[in-house]
Amino acid sequence: DAGVTQSPTHLIKTRGQHVTLRCSPISGHKSVSWYQQVLGQGPQFIFQYYEKEERGRGNFPDRFSARQFPNYSSELNVNALLLGDSALYLCASSFGQSSYNEQFFGPGTRLTVL
Amino acid sequence: GNSVTQMEGPVTLSEEAFLTINCTYTATGYPSLFWYVQYPGEGLQLLLKATKADDKGSNKGFEATYRKETTSFHLEKGSVQVSDSAVYFCALIPLSGGSYIPTFGRGTSLIVHP
C-alpha cells in the first residue's frame, strides 16, 4: 500500500510569491495534518483537517491556509512568502482525529525562499 | 502552553552501547506521549507511544515509560546499532478540550559508530 505522498519534493520560490503544496493521505485515512520543520528544529503544527473540516490550527499567520478535498487529499497554501518560510513541510495522515490514532508522515516538501 | 524539552545532541555512541535520550514535558492534564524517529531525507516514523501514566511503550528494542510524577518519557535502548543513527523526536498530544494539537521537541541526533 502507498504511504503518504507529497508533491512537489523540492520547490524554490522568491519572496512575495505564492506556493501550493499537496498531500495524499493513506487510503482510508480521513485526517490530514500539516507541519513546518525548520532545519534543526522539531515539526511545528500548522493545521489539522478531519472530514474536510479544520479541526486545529497552530500559531501561524493568516498567510497560511489549507483545505481538504472530498477524497481526503489536502493542499497547503502560503501567500506572500518570506525568507523565514524556508523549511521542510510535512504532511501526516491518520484514520481518526484523536491522539490515539497514529499519524503517518510523508517525506515532506523542501521549500526554499530566496 | 504545552512544551517538550529534549536533551541536546548529538549523542555519539559506539555500537552495542546503552542509549538514553531524556524527554520532559509540560502539559495541562495527561497527554499522550510519543517518540518519533527521522532518518536522513525521510519523514518522521512513529517509534512508540504511551497514552496513560505508567504505560511503557516499546518497539524495535526501544522503550519509554510514561512517568507522571516526573513528567518524563525518556527513551532507552539496551544495545544500539549503526542503523539506529537518526534524529529522535519526543512529542505530546493533549487529550483535553477537543483540540489535538501536537507539540514536538527540538529533536536529538544519535550517531552510532561501528
Gist of the model:
The complex is a heterodimer of chains A (114) and B (114). With 114 residues, chain A is an all-beta fold. Chain A has no helices and eleven strands.
Descriptive overview:
Chain A is mainly β. Chain A is built from no helices and eleven strands. Chain A has strands at 5-7, 10-13, 19-24, 31-37, 44-50, 53-57, 64-68, 74-78, 87-94, 104-105, 109-113. In chain A, the strands form two sheets. In chain A, strands 2, 4, 5, 6, 9, 10 and 11 form a seven-stranded mixed β-sheet that branches. In chain A, strands 1-3-8-7 form a four-stranded antiparallel β-sheet, with no helix packed on it. Chain A is globular. Chain A starts with a strand and ends with a strand. Chain B has 114 residues and is an all-beta fold. Helices cover 0% and strands 49% of the residues of chain B. Chain B has strands at 3-6, 11-14, 19-21, 23-26, 32-38, 44-50, 56-59, 62-65, 75-77, 86-93, 103-104, 108-113. In chain B, strands 2, 5, 6, 10, 11 and 12 form a six-stranded mixed β-sheet that branches. A four-stranded antiparallel β-sheet of chain B has the order 3-9-8-7, with no helix packed on it. In chain B, strands 1-4 form a two-stranded antiparallel sheet. Chain B starts with a strand and ends with a strand. The model of chain B has no long low-confidence stretch (mean pLDDT 92). The A-B interface holds A 4, 33, 40-45, 48, 55-56, 58, 90, 92, 97-100, 102-108 and B 4, 31-32, 36, 41-46, 49, 51, 89, 91, 93-95, 99-107.
